[in-house]
Amino acid sequence: xxxxxxxxxxxxxxxxxxxxxxxxxxxxxxxxxxxxxxxxxxxxxxxxxxxxxxxxxxxxxxxxxxxxxxxxxxxxxxxxxxxxxxxxxxxxxxxxxxxxxxxxxxxxxxxxxxxxxxxxxxxx
Length: 124
Fold this sequence. Notes:
By secondary structure, the protein is mainly beta. The protein has no helices and 11 strands. The termini are far apart.
């Protein structure tokens, strides 16, 4: 399985922006499906955004229009641009990948490779 590592997390005020990056240990083929999940304290992990081999995307309704997922080049697997951040976006964000998928999915069981996570904290 490919090794993934997230970066770009931090602390921002509400309304601010952050860009998360996910680096892979090897160059990923164009068929790879990539996603970002998050887990807040005391809550279950939830899918935030996903992109498939055809670059079709899907988003958690609460982030649609504020977050944008994209694929990178070389070993830069994916990015998550987060704008208009809200305190409820505070969580540990995880990058996930799978060799192939029928469509972009926000179900954690659809992904075989995971990063260790990066903390995002949004203050009011």
